[in-house]
Amino acid sequence: MKTNPIPRRACLAAVTFVIAPLIATAGPDSKEVIPELTPAPVSPWEFRLTPYGWLTGLDGTSGAGGITTDVDAPFFNDILDNMKMAAALRFEARNGKWGLLTDGFYADLGANGDPIGPAYKSVSIDLKQFIGQAAVSYRVYETPKGFIDIFAGARYNGVWLDLDASVDPAGVTALTSKASGVFTNAVGNQAEAIVEPRVEEYKNAADAERAVIEDEVQNAIENEANSRVKENLKRQLMEIRRNNGLDAETLILNRVSRAIKSEASALAKATAALKVAQLRATVDSSQQSAVDKAQKKVDKANKQLASALDTQVSSSLPTSASANKQWVDPIVGFRGQYNFNDKWFLAGNADIGGFGVSSDITWSLEAAVGYNFTKNVSVELGYRYLYTDYSDGGFVYDMSQAGIYTGLNLKF
What we know:
The chain is of the alpha+beta class. The protein is built from 9 helices and 11 strands. Strands 1, 2, 3, 4, 5, 6, 7, 8, 9, 10 and 11 form an 11-stranded antiparallel beta sheet that branches.
């Protein structure tokens, strides 16, 4: 069966319909149509991560539990031997003029301290510390040459302190001997104030009346001395306490006073007996030997008092103490950067805080020279200083920390 062939005109029309547009677009006056691509969105946020190292030394006073010590461990000497661990990291997020600054530093340090007073030979200190900081910043000035930011926030301090002290027996003995000597002189002066107004009366009295005067003088001296034992002793113990940086809870005045009450009473009786012997010697020179014997008894009583005081003070002196303290200080500050060129720059910041909220005052300074390896990678080398003056009850942390700082800046 024959099929009807497609007419030539129909075929030519179909071919012309398909290729005509292609020929037209390929002509000399034609333009190629390129589809428009939408650019990837750019985040308004910029981030910088900075792991860093801070070889910090210690210089100041720290104490807890009755032990206070002066510490002087420079970063370039002792701290290299005594730093057990350190870790630090900074992170910054920025959107336009506003930014968030965070910083965390942890260190485990050991050092030898100098005791404040002569009752101790030495003090060793183990300090674990975490400093965390967060602040909001605002860029007040920016050019291709650099920028200046101001910021406000808070600094967290966590301090874990362990102190070990070595008592100096010779130092304690010297202190207690001095204290007992002052105490003995005070009792003697009080006794003299009682006896002196009655010397002429005693000389002119009959024997029976003299015996009455002797009893009255002796009783008055003993009563006066015993009533002022605590007052006189308290002054001496407070002197020992101040000289050795001890707190009220460590050297308990009332307990020590009660513990040496019998020795104090014996000294009062010996002093009264001495004054009676001296009275008798005013009318009978042969009584001078009795005065000498009475004086020896006073000296013996003084030594016994010093020994008892030495024992009590020695047993009250702490040899170890620990404290865990955490506090937060408000801070304000500024920071900036100056670009010498596209590679080298100078960076620095400073802040101050505390204001009595927690610390009496805290402040820090930092300055560093930096180098850009690429647009997103740079390093810094400089010096950092931080001072904190904080106290709470028996805990004292009045410390400067300073040393070399180095960091690696990663921007993304």
